[in-house]
Amino acid sequence: xxxxxxxxxxxxxxxxxxxxxxxxxxxxxxxxxxxxxxxxxxxxxxxxxxxxxxxxxxxxxxxxxxxxxxxxxxxxxxxxxxxxxxxxxxxxxxxxxxxxxxxxxxxxxxxxxxxxxxxxxxxxxxxxxxxxxxxxxxxxxxxxxxxxxxxxxxxxxxxxxxxxxxxxxxxxxxxxxx
Length: 178
Ligand SMILES: CC(C)(COP(=O)(O)OP(=O)(O)OC[C@H]1O[C@@H](n2cnc3c(N)ncnc32)[C@H](O)[C@@H]1OP(=O)(O)O)[C@@H](O)C(=O)NCCC(=O)NCCS
Hints:
The chain is of the alpha+beta class. It has helices spanning 22-32, 39-46, 95-109, 125-133, and strands at residues 13-15, 53-57, 60-71, 77-86, 113-121, 137-145, 155-163.
């Protein structure tokens, strides 16, 4: 039986999105996700810096993570990851894990953030495998979300949660400078 060779991790650097390069963020989304994202999605994501970021490989934007900070009545906050995507030729090279680890590290440095969570459609096996290997666990309930990522039909989603205080960065996820 042929054994699939694991590809070596790629060195990435981070780029903060701004009004000047938001078109790059939009292009990454249009290349990865089938849904179209409204202007408000990008405006909200740009308000959540430095959590929202793009990954550059050889000066080329190959991935992005978009976040939203949700303030709780207690004064604490929850960080919602609205999208995480890596262009398909660059998948399986550790980029998604590095972007997620960077967000968790920033969340840990922010005394107000307790939890980080995702909504993942139940049929997204790729994201499920990825999140499990990154230590995220399914919360005990699933939600049916109307208009998830702009789809017209409601979508069944699992809620993946990671407590910030319990997060231990996996080895080898430092983001190298290029
Ligand atoms: C999900 C996604 C972000 C993963 O990014 P990636 O850069 O390919 O993932 P990585 O190379 O960093 O992989 C990290 C870990 O997840 C695992 N993983 C990645 N893709 C996987 C898959 N399809 N099935 C099972 N496990 C997977 C890897 O084996 C690796 O595990 P390891 O650290 O134990 O070796 C990427 O596949 C993607 O953009 N998918 C389309 C968009 C999407 O579904 N986004 C939702 C994200 S929650």
